[in-house]
Amino acid sequence: TPGGSGAPFTLAALLRRHGVAPAQATAVLAVDQLTDLLVFAALLPTVALYGLARYLDLAAWWQVAVPFALMLAALAGVGLLARFQRRVLIGSGDFLAWLGLRRRRRLRLARAVLRFRRGLEETLAVPRRRLLLMFSLCLCHWLLRYSVIYVAVLALGEHLDWVYGFFVQMVAMGAGHLTLLPGGAGGAEVAGAALLNPWLTSVTTATTIVVWRFFTFYWYLLAGGAVMLWLAARTGQPLLDGK
């Protein structure tokens, strides 16, 4: 889905199979996204300083500064929303009333927001060692995921700094999201190839892009699609049997 917009619905549907309410599932996804933001907010300054000094002209600082500023703005927005949540809830209710939304629907939406807030508070209320473990696992996940290009280039007998591979994937995925296509198909490949071509041969660049996208995108489609079909068939079988 464009920009991963289907993730909340998919996560809610899968967790619901294990008795997790939709509001709690959304809260879990929110904590997961906040953890991702914290990880990248911690990684980007180091990557930016090294990458700009070694590979890029300092005039290109905005290519890293923009996503970093957006992440900081998102974290600040979350903090402000948590602090002034009552005012935001009241203001959004008044705005929906101005749009002509019926009172029953407004109350239903307000209850959903309150259930989400309760689920978020319960998720963040776990012991700090668990939150630290979650952050550590998230950090390991992104470090491994952003090492695919580096490992692929090494396997092909050439060398590329890990930091530059990180930068390539970050910029390429950002370009892919701008295309508004599912998984950034097309845009990510073109942007990644444009950044790798100055440092690698054309054959190595093409092979690296294929390996990178297969292990970080197309493999998910193949494996996830098979599991989705299996779950759909398993869920639909009782209906076909008349149960």
Describe the structure.
This protein has 243 residues and is mostly helical. It has two domains: 1-126; 146-238. Helix content is 79%, strand content 0%. The chain contains ten helices and no strands. The radius of gyration is 22 Å and the shape is globular. The model has no long low-confidence stretch (mean pLDDT 77).
Pick out the low-confidence regions.
none
Count of all domains: 2
Radius of gyration: 22 Å
The CA-CA distance between the termini, in Å, is 33 Å
Task: Indicate the percent of residues in helices.
Answer: over 70%
Question: What's the structural blueprint in terms of helices and strands?
Answer:
Elements: H1 7-16, H2 22-54, H3 62-83, H4 85-98, H5 103-124, H6 128-145, H7 148-155, H8 162-178, H9 187-196, H10 202-240
Question: What structural keywords apply?
Answer:
243 residues; mainly alpha; 10 helices; 2 domains
What can be said about this structure in brief?
With 243 residues, this protein is mainly alpha-helical. The protein is 79% helix and 0% strand. It folds into two domains: 1-126; 146-238.
